[in-house]
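Two quick folds needed for the group meeting slides. Do the first one here.
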Amino acid sequence: MIATVYALFADAAEAERIAETVVTERLAACANILAPCRSIYRWQGVVERAEEVPALFKTAAPDALIARIAALHSYDVPAVVSWPIDHAHLPYANWVQENS
Protein backbone atom coordinates (compact mmCIF):
# COMPACT_ATOMS: atom_id res chain seq x y z
CA MET A 1 0.00 0.00 0.00
CA ILE A 2 1.16 3.52 -0.73
CA ALA A 3 -0.17 6.77 0.70
CA THR A 4 0.04 10.51 0.36
CA VAL A 5 0.84 12.34 3.60
CA TYR A 6 -0.18 15.99 3.84
CA ALA A 7 1.47 18.33 6.32
CA LEU A 8 1.60 22.07 7.00
CA PHE A 9 4.77 23.87 8.06
CA ALA A 10 5.57 27.27 9.55
CA ASP A 11 7.72 28.26 6.58
CA ALA A 12 9.50 26.94 3.49
CA ALA A 13 12.77 26.37 5.37
CA GLU A 14 11.10 24.03 7.85
CA ALA A 15 9.25 22.21 5.05
CA GLU A 16 12.49 21.72 3.11
CA ARG A 17 14.48 20.61 6.17
CA ILE A 18 11.92 18.01 7.17
CA ALA A 19 11.32 16.87 3.58
CA GLU A 20 15.01 16.30 3.00
CA THR A 21 15.32 14.44 6.30
CA VAL A 22 12.45 12.01 5.66
CA VAL A 23 13.49 11.38 2.03
CA THR A 24 17.08 10.74 3.15
CA GLU A 25 15.81 8.39 5.86
CA ARG A 26 13.68 6.59 3.21
CA LEU A 27 10.43 7.29 5.05
CA ALA A 28 9.18 9.11 1.94
CA ALA A 29 10.05 8.54 -1.69
CA CYS A 30 9.30 12.15 -2.58
CA ALA A 31 8.04 15.42 -1.14
CA ASN A 32 6.29 18.20 -3.02
CA ILE A 33 6.53 21.54 -1.24
CA LEU A 34 3.69 23.74 -2.38
CA ALA A 35 3.21 27.50 -2.48
CA PRO A 36 2.46 29.24 0.80
CA CYS A 37 -1.18 29.25 1.81
CA ARG A 38 -3.24 31.36 4.18
CA SER A 39 -4.63 29.40 7.13
CA ILE A 40 -7.43 30.47 9.44
CA TYR A 41 -7.82 28.27 12.51
CA ARG A 42 -8.85 28.20 16.14
CA TRP A 43 -5.98 27.81 18.61
CA GLN A 44 -6.41 27.97 22.37
CA GLY A 45 -9.84 29.58 21.99
CA VAL A 46 -8.74 32.33 19.59
CA VAL A 47 -9.21 32.51 15.83
CA GLU A 48 -5.75 32.90 14.30
CA ARG A 49 -4.42 33.60 10.82
CA ALA A 50 -1.06 32.52 9.49
CA GLU A 51 0.83 31.92 6.29
CA GLU A 52 1.92 28.28 6.17
CA VAL A 53 3.62 26.00 3.67
CA PRO A 54 1.85 22.75 2.74
CA ALA A 55 3.68 19.67 1.51
CA LEU A 56 2.69 16.32 0.05
CA PHE A 57 4.80 13.23 0.76
CA LYS A 58 4.61 9.92 -1.12
CA THR A 59 5.24 6.90 1.11
CA ALA A 60 4.77 3.20 1.72
CA ALA A 61 5.14 3.78 5.48
CA PRO A 62 2.56 6.43 6.45
CA ASP A 63 2.51 5.72 10.20
CA ALA A 64 6.29 5.94 10.55
CA LEU A 65 6.40 9.03 8.33
CA ILE A 66 3.69 10.82 10.31
CA ALA A 67 5.49 10.07 13.58
CA ARG A 68 8.81 11.33 12.22
CA ILE A 69 7.34 14.54 10.79
CA ALA A 70 5.61 15.21 14.12
CA ALA A 71 8.89 14.65 16.00
CA LEU A 72 10.78 17.09 13.77
CA HIS A 73 8.01 19.71 13.57
CA SER A 74 8.05 23.10 15.32
CA TYR A 75 4.31 23.10 16.11
CA ASP A 76 2.90 21.66 19.34
CA VAL A 77 0.11 20.01 17.33
CA PRO A 78 1.19 19.72 13.70
CA ALA A 79 -1.37 18.93 11.00
CA VAL A 80 -0.09 15.69 9.50
CA VAL A 81 -2.59 13.31 7.87
CA SER A 82 -2.52 10.56 5.27
CA TRP A 83 -4.72 9.35 2.47
CA PRO A 84 -4.33 5.84 1.10
CA ILE A 85 -3.79 5.58 -2.63
CA ASP A 86 -6.24 2.98 -3.95
CA HIS A 87 -5.29 3.34 -7.60
CA ALA A 88 -1.95 4.37 -9.07
CA HIS A 89 0.12 3.84 -12.18
CA LEU A 90 1.87 0.56 -11.29
CA PRO A 91 5.43 1.69 -12.08
CA TYR A 92 4.87 4.77 -9.89
CA ALA A 93 3.45 2.68 -7.02
CA ASN A 94 6.43 0.33 -7.27
CA TRP A 95 8.82 3.29 -7.23
CA VAL A 96 7.19 4.67 -4.04
CA GLN A 97 7.39 1.26 -2.36
CA GLU A 98 11.04 0.79 -3.36
CA ASN A 99 12.08 4.24 -2.14
CA SER A 100 10.27 4.62 1.17
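Then this one, please, same format:
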Amino acid sequence: MRVRGVGSLTDRITALRARLGADVFQKVAGDEGPGRRERIHNAPGPRWFAEDRPIRRVHGDASMFVGGLRALLLQSLHPLAMAGVAGHSGYRGDPWGRLARTSYFLAATTFGPDAEARAVIERIRSVHSRVRGRAPDGRAYSAGDPHLLEWVHIAEIDSFLRAHQRYGSRPLDQAGRDGYVADTARVARELGVPDPPRTEAALADRIAAYRPELAGTPQARSTARFLLLNPPLAIAARAPYALLAAAAVELLPWWARTPLRLPYLPVVEHTLVRAGGQVVTHGIRWVMAA
Protein backbone atom coordinates (compact mmCIF):
# COMPACT_ATOMS: atom_id res chain seq x y z
CA MET A 1 0.00 0.00 0.00
CA ARG A 2 1.41 3.37 -0.95
CA VAL A 3 0.73 6.49 1.13
CA ARG A 4 -0.88 9.17 -1.01
CA GLY A 5 1.65 11.71 -2.15
CA VAL A 6 4.70 9.76 -0.97
CA GLY A 7 4.93 7.58 -4.05
CA SER A 8 4.58 10.50 -6.43
CA LEU A 9 7.26 12.46 -4.51
CA THR A 10 9.62 9.49 -4.67
CA ASP A 11 8.95 9.16 -8.39
CA ARG A 12 9.72 12.83 -8.93
CA ILE A 13 12.98 12.58 -6.97
CA THR A 14 13.98 9.49 -8.93
CA ALA A 15 13.24 11.21 -12.23
CA LEU A 16 15.15 14.33 -11.16
CA ARG A 17 18.11 12.21 -10.09
CA ALA A 18 18.16 10.38 -13.42
CA ARG A 19 17.91 13.62 -15.39
CA LEU A 20 20.71 15.29 -13.44
CA GLY A 21 22.88 12.20 -13.78
CA ALA A 22 22.32 12.14 -17.53
CA ASP A 23 23.17 15.85 -17.77
CA VAL A 24 26.43 15.40 -15.86
CA PHE A 25 27.37 12.36 -17.93
CA GLN A 26 26.68 14.22 -21.17
CA LYS A 27 28.88 17.13 -20.10
CA VAL A 28 31.72 14.85 -19.07
CA ALA A 29 31.53 12.23 -21.81
CA GLY A 30 30.06 14.16 -24.76
CA ASP A 31 27.74 12.92 -27.47
CA GLU A 32 29.82 9.78 -28.00
CA GLY A 33 29.65 8.90 -24.31
CA PRO A 34 27.00 6.15 -24.43
CA GLY A 35 28.77 4.24 -27.20
CA ARG A 36 32.13 4.59 -25.54
CA ARG A 37 30.70 3.49 -22.20
CA GLU A 38 29.30 0.36 -23.84
CA ARG A 39 32.67 -0.52 -25.39
CA ILE A 40 34.67 0.27 -22.26
CA HIS A 41 32.57 -1.61 -19.74
CA ASN A 42 30.87 -4.36 -21.72
CA ALA A 43 33.26 -5.36 -24.51
CA PRO A 44 35.04 -8.65 -23.83
CA GLY A 45 38.78 -8.93 -23.43
CA PRO A 46 41.53 -8.55 -20.84
CA ARG A 47 41.86 -5.28 -18.94
CA TRP A 48 45.05 -3.55 -17.83
CA PHE A 49 43.87 -3.42 -14.21
CA ALA A 50 41.97 -5.92 -12.10
CA GLU A 51 38.76 -4.82 -10.41
CA ASP A 52 40.44 -4.52 -7.00
CA ARG A 53 43.25 -2.22 -8.15
CA PRO A 54 43.47 1.27 -6.57
CA ILE A 55 43.34 3.04 -9.93
CA ARG A 56 39.78 1.80 -10.42
CA ARG A 57 38.73 3.07 -7.01
CA VAL A 58 40.21 6.53 -7.58
CA HIS A 59 39.16 7.04 -11.20
CA GLY A 60 35.64 5.81 -10.55
CA ASP A 61 34.91 8.28 -7.75
CA ALA A 62 33.23 11.69 -7.84
CA SER A 63 36.33 13.24 -6.25
CA MET A 64 37.81 13.19 -9.77
CA PHE A 65 35.84 16.37 -10.50
CA VAL A 66 37.84 18.23 -7.86
CA GLY A 67 41.08 16.50 -8.83
CA GLY A 68 40.63 17.31 -12.50
CA LEU A 69 40.33 21.04 -11.85
CA ARG A 70 43.34 21.00 -9.54
CA ALA A 71 45.35 19.13 -12.18
CA LEU A 72 44.63 21.75 -14.84
CA LEU A 73 45.71 24.56 -12.50
CA LEU A 74 48.88 22.76 -11.47
CA GLN A 75 49.79 21.70 -15.02
CA SER A 76 49.48 25.31 -16.22
CA LEU A 77 52.51 26.31 -14.13
CA HIS A 78 54.95 24.73 -16.57
CA PRO A 79 55.43 27.43 -19.25
CA LEU A 80 56.11 24.97 -22.08
CA ALA A 81 53.20 22.69 -21.22
CA MET A 82 50.96 25.75 -20.89
CA ALA A 83 52.09 27.08 -24.27
CA GLY A 84 51.15 23.78 -25.89
CA VAL A 85 47.71 23.82 -24.31
CA ALA A 86 47.10 27.46 -25.22
CA GLY A 87 48.25 27.01 -28.79
CA HIS A 88 46.73 23.68 -29.72
CA SER A 89 44.09 22.30 -27.34
CA GLY A 90 41.20 24.67 -28.06
CA TYR A 91 40.22 24.53 -24.40
CA ARG A 92 38.52 27.93 -24.55
CA GLY A 93 36.60 27.36 -27.76
CA ASP A 94 35.64 23.78 -26.96
CA PRO A 95 36.20 23.09 -23.22
CA TRP A 96 33.57 20.35 -23.09
CA GLY A 97 35.14 18.57 -26.05
CA ARG A 98 38.49 18.59 -24.31
CA LEU A 99 36.88 17.30 -21.11
CA ALA A 100 35.17 14.49 -23.05
CA ARG A 101 38.46 13.46 -24.67
CA THR A 102 40.24 13.44 -21.32
CA SER A 103 37.49 11.45 -19.59
CA TYR A 104 37.49 8.95 -22.45
CA PHE A 105 41.26 8.48 -22.11
CA LEU A 106 40.97 7.91 -18.36
CA ALA A 107 38.01 5.55 -18.66
CA ALA A 108 39.47 3.53 -21.54
CA THR A 109 42.86 2.98 -19.90
CA THR A 110 41.42 2.33 -16.43
CA PHE A 111 38.38 0.19 -17.18
CA GLY A 112 38.43 -0.71 -20.87
CA PRO A 113 39.66 -3.80 -22.68
CA ASP A 114 43.24 -3.87 -23.90
CA ALA A 115 42.27 -3.07 -27.49
CA GLU A 116 40.31 0.05 -26.48
CA ALA A 117 43.08 1.28 -24.18
CA ARG A 118 45.77 0.80 -26.84
CA ALA A 119 43.65 2.51 -29.50
CA VAL A 120 43.16 5.66 -27.40
CA ILE A 121 46.86 5.71 -26.45
CA GLU A 122 47.85 5.54 -30.12
CA ARG A 123 45.50 8.39 -31.00
CA ILE A 124 46.95 10.55 -28.25
CA ARG A 125 50.52 9.81 -29.29
CA SER A 126 49.65 10.67 -32.88
CA VAL A 127 48.21 14.02 -31.79
CA HIS A 128 51.24 14.72 -29.60
CA SER A 129 53.58 14.15 -32.53
CA ARG A 130 52.00 17.12 -34.32
CA VAL A 131 51.83 19.53 -31.38
CA ARG A 132 54.95 21.66 -31.38
CA GLY A 133 55.83 25.33 -31.44
CA ARG A 134 57.44 28.11 -29.44
CA ALA A 135 56.39 29.49 -26.08
CA PRO A 136 56.06 33.27 -25.59
CA ASP A 137 59.59 33.27 -24.10
CA GLY A 138 60.99 31.84 -27.35
CA ARG A 139 61.68 28.30 -26.17
CA ALA A 140 60.62 25.44 -28.41
CA TYR A 141 58.18 22.84 -27.10
CA SER A 142 56.83 19.51 -28.26
CA ALA A 143 53.91 17.65 -26.71
CA GLY A 144 55.80 14.42 -27.28
CA ASP A 145 58.75 15.56 -25.15
CA PRO A 146 59.05 12.90 -22.39
CA HIS A 147 59.99 15.59 -19.86
CA LEU A 148 56.78 17.55 -20.51
CA LEU A 149 54.73 14.36 -20.66
CA GLU A 150 56.00 13.44 -17.22
CA TRP A 151 55.04 16.82 -15.76
CA VAL A 152 51.51 16.52 -17.11
CA HIS A 153 51.32 12.98 -15.73
CA ILE A 154 52.61 13.65 -12.22
CA ALA A 155 50.56 16.85 -11.81
CA GLU A 156 47.48 14.88 -12.82
CA ILE A 157 47.91 11.84 -10.60
CA ASP A 158 49.01 13.92 -7.61
CA SER A 159 45.80 15.91 -8.02
CA PHE A 160 43.57 12.86 -8.43
CA LEU A 161 45.14 11.17 -5.41
CA ARG A 162 44.92 14.20 -3.12
CA ALA A 163 41.32 14.86 -4.12
CA HIS A 164 40.44 11.23 -3.46
CA GLN A 165 42.02 11.30 -0.03
CA ARG A 166 40.04 14.42 0.88
CA TYR A 167 36.72 13.79 -0.89
CA GLY A 168 36.66 10.16 -2.02
CA SER A 169 34.12 7.73 -0.63
CA ARG A 170 36.86 5.25 0.37
CA PRO A 171 40.26 6.90 0.91
CA LEU A 172 43.31 4.70 0.39
CA ASP A 173 45.80 3.52 3.00
CA GLN A 174 49.53 3.86 2.34
CA ALA A 175 49.75 0.62 0.40
CA GLY A 176 46.78 1.70 -1.68
CA ARG A 177 48.29 5.10 -2.41
CA ASP A 178 51.54 3.52 -3.54
CA GLY A 179 49.52 1.04 -5.58
CA TYR A 180 47.66 3.87 -7.29
CA VAL A 181 50.87 5.60 -8.31
CA ALA A 182 52.25 2.28 -9.57
CA ASP A 183 49.07 1.60 -11.57
CA THR A 184 49.19 4.98 -13.26
CA ALA A 185 52.85 4.43 -14.13
CA ARG A 186 51.72 1.69 -16.53
CA VAL A 187 49.62 4.22 -18.45
CA ALA A 188 52.37 6.85 -18.37
CA ARG A 189 54.89 4.46 -19.90
CA GLU A 190 52.49 3.66 -22.72
CA LEU A 191 52.19 7.41 -23.42
CA GLY A 192 55.97 7.85 -23.59
CA VAL A 193 57.12 8.66 -20.04
CA PRO A 194 60.25 6.52 -19.63
CA ASP A 195 60.51 6.29 -15.83
CA PRO A 196 57.35 7.48 -14.04
CA PRO A 197 57.26 7.37 -10.22
CA ARG A 198 55.84 4.22 -8.66
CA THR A 199 55.27 5.26 -5.03
CA GLU A 200 53.67 8.24 -3.32
CA ALA A 201 57.05 9.34 -1.92
CA ALA A 202 58.68 9.13 -5.36
CA LEU A 203 55.80 11.17 -6.79
CA ALA A 204 56.38 13.93 -4.23
CA ASP A 205 60.11 13.93 -4.99
CA ARG A 206 59.50 14.15 -8.72
CA ILE A 207 57.12 17.11 -8.35
CA ALA A 208 59.67 18.88 -6.15
CA ALA A 209 62.31 18.37 -8.85
CA TYR A 210 60.14 20.24 -11.36
CA ARG A 211 59.54 23.28 -9.16
CA PRO A 212 62.49 25.35 -10.47
CA GLU A 213 60.93 25.13 -13.97
CA LEU A 214 57.48 26.36 -12.91
CA ALA A 215 56.19 29.91 -13.24
CA GLY A 216 52.98 31.89 -13.22
CA THR A 217 52.97 33.11 -16.80
CA PRO A 218 50.24 35.40 -18.17
CA GLN A 219 48.88 32.36 -20.04
CA ALA A 220 48.69 30.36 -16.81
CA ARG A 221 46.93 33.14 -14.91
CA SER A 222 44.49 33.65 -17.78
CA THR A 223 43.72 29.94 -17.74
CA ALA A 224 43.11 30.02 -13.98
CA ARG A 225 40.66 32.93 -14.37
CA PHE A 226 38.84 31.09 -17.14
CA LEU A 227 38.58 27.85 -15.17
CA LEU A 228 37.63 29.40 -11.86
CA LEU A 229 35.64 32.51 -12.74
CA ASN A 230 34.34 32.22 -16.30
CA PRO A 231 33.37 28.61 -17.02
CA PRO A 232 30.91 28.11 -19.90
CA LEU A 233 28.05 26.96 -17.69
CA ALA A 234 24.37 27.67 -17.26
CA ILE A 235 23.46 29.89 -14.31
CA ALA A 236 21.98 26.96 -12.38
CA ALA A 237 25.26 25.03 -12.56
CA ARG A 238 27.51 27.85 -11.41
CA ALA A 239 26.94 27.45 -7.68
CA PRO A 240 27.95 23.77 -7.51
CA TYR A 241 30.83 24.47 -9.89
CA ALA A 242 32.02 27.25 -7.57
CA LEU A 243 32.16 24.70 -4.73
CA LEU A 244 34.24 22.36 -6.92
CA ALA A 245 36.56 25.19 -7.93
CA ALA A 246 37.08 26.33 -4.34
CA ALA A 247 37.80 22.76 -3.26
CA ALA A 248 40.35 22.39 -6.08
CA VAL A 249 42.15 25.60 -5.12
CA GLU A 250 42.19 24.60 -1.44
CA LEU A 251 44.07 21.42 -2.37
CA LEU A 252 46.84 23.33 -4.17
CA PRO A 253 50.14 23.79 -2.30
CA TRP A 254 51.09 27.34 -1.33
CA TRP A 255 53.90 27.45 -3.90
CA ALA A 256 51.39 26.85 -6.70
CA ARG A 257 48.92 29.50 -5.56
CA THR A 258 51.25 32.48 -5.40
CA PRO A 259 52.28 32.47 -9.09
CA LEU A 260 48.64 32.01 -10.12
CA ARG A 261 47.59 34.85 -7.77
CA LEU A 262 45.12 32.67 -5.93
CA PRO A 263 44.20 33.65 -2.36
CA TYR A 264 44.93 31.67 0.78
CA LEU A 265 42.27 31.92 3.50
CA PRO A 266 43.05 29.09 5.93
CA VAL A 267 40.13 29.47 8.36
CA VAL A 268 37.54 29.68 5.57
CA GLU A 269 39.18 26.91 3.56
CA HIS A 270 39.48 24.45 6.45
CA THR A 271 35.81 24.87 7.33
CA LEU A 272 33.46 26.22 4.68
CA VAL A 273 35.41 25.20 1.57
CA ARG A 274 36.00 21.64 2.71
CA ALA A 275 32.38 21.30 3.78
CA GLY A 276 31.26 22.62 0.40
CA GLY A 277 33.56 20.18 -1.37
CA GLN A 278 32.02 17.31 0.57
CA VAL A 279 28.51 18.46 -0.29
CA VAL A 280 29.13 18.79 -4.02
CA THR A 281 31.05 15.50 -4.37
CA HIS A 282 28.33 13.68 -2.44
CA GLY A 283 25.76 15.27 -4.75
CA ILE A 284 27.63 14.23 -7.90
CA ARG A 285 28.06 10.72 -6.55
CA TRP A 286 24.32 10.52 -5.83
CA VAL A 287 23.15 11.65 -9.25
CA MET A 288 25.75 9.61 -11.16
CA ALA A 289 24.73 6.45 -9.34
CA ALA A 290 21.40 6.69 -11.13
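Slide caption for protein two: The chain has one domain: 18-288.
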